[in-house]
Amino acid sequence: MSPHALIALAISLLVSAGQTALRPDAPIKCESCDEWNVPIEGFKVFGNTYYVGTAGLSALLVTSPEGHILLDGGLSQSAPLIEANIRKLGFKLTDVKLILNSHAYQRATDLTQKLPNPLYVAPAPRRLSAEQVVDSMFATTGKPFRTEEASLDIDSIREQANSVTLGQPRRAWMLTSTSNERDRPALALPRIQAVCDVMAAFGWRASRPDPVTDRESSANSLQPAILSNGTMGTWVTRLSDDHGVTALAFGARTTADFVDELFLRVLTRRPTAAEKARYEAYLTPGFERRCRNNGFTSENGRIVNLALPRPAGPRRPEYYVSWSNHLNDLATTVRMQQEAAARKGDPATPQLTDDWRRRAEDVVWALVNSPEFLYY
Questions:
Q1: In CATH terms, is domain 3-100 a member of 3.60.15.10?
Q2: Cα(281)–Cα(12) distance, integer angstroms
Q3: Residues of CATH 3.60.15.10 domain(s) within the chain?
């Protein structure tokens, strides 16, 4: 419940008590406000608890001989509807002693604020931290966060006193500098380095003992450049078999459903009418024929092809480079191949037609590179 709604309800209480009437706030305007504020009849939930809200905004009245408690108050224009329901249920508005605020409808960023306001729950616009930028890009797109083990001794050959492992990273905050005392190419960690490059552009501390606590937060030209054209940006925008948007595209019934779900995932809001029209028009060509009928299905959010034959012959482990073999003449070659594979990223899914998949990738790219994603 917003402060406007609190004020509107307080005005109703004052008027009912015979006090001087105050001017109510103007109705809050939003795309769904009218739909939320459709009036419905109040009803008893159980015991001394009654529903007095609207069709889309809950408000509960808890009654007692010592006075009533109102839980939430909706929008400012919800106040007269809530008041009417309280009266129709046989209670007096003057007996409401407490109004408890649920904050449910004011968590969206308030673009008019420059700094956080302790009297208002809606946050002021702010930039994501380096780790939040990375984790959000993987979480919202559904692309698995997959890197090498954060160790130069993955086969545990060195003595414990001379070996440090930070395990398998699952989040950006688990990473640290990839520098090593020898600075040898064979000991590079290309996938971790690609993520660290993005975070460094956003003020990340590569070395944990670094005493600096206040990061450089001002925007710079490197930030959009490395996100839109860097290696990690390729990972999160290309629709591979294990990409969350691939599964979303596979199951979408209409372009409208696809656009709505994509906005909710990436920007945690529905698109405006103009945005929806623009993206639907871009994604409509080829949408009905986007899925290739060649044995693919979706299992646990991953696209798999049940018609493909199993690989012939024994399965062989991949070549790896560790401290024990990094001086081998092939170690640098293997690491360079891994670096090239990291830059190239996972192959695009064959489940979707190439033309429509590229359109969907353009939309994902536009959303994750939007200022709203990074700075609001």
A1: yes
A2: 47
A3: 3-100
Which residues share a beta bridge with 299?
A: 302
The gap between the terminal CA atoms of the chain, to the nearest Å, is 21
CA angle 319, 325, 330 (to 5 degrees): 60
| Structure tokens given for 328 | 């081998």
- String of b and e for 18-45 (b: at least 16 CB within 10 Å)? eeeeeebbeebeeeebeebbeeeebeee
Rounded CA Rg of the chain:
28
Backbone angles phi, psi at 296, to 5 degrees: -85, 150
Which helix (H) or strand (E) segment holds residue 164: the answer is: none
Q: Cα 180 to the chain's mean position, in Å?
A: 34
pTM: predicted TM-score of the whole model, two decimal places: 0.65
- Interval 39-69: pLDDT, tens: 999 999 989 999 999 988 889 999 999 999 9
Residue in the structure block whose two tokens are 């440090």: 164
pLDDT of 334-363, one tens digit each?
Answer: 889 989 999 999 999 988 999 999 999 999
Strand partners, 71: 60, 100
Average pLDDT over every residue of 93-113: 70
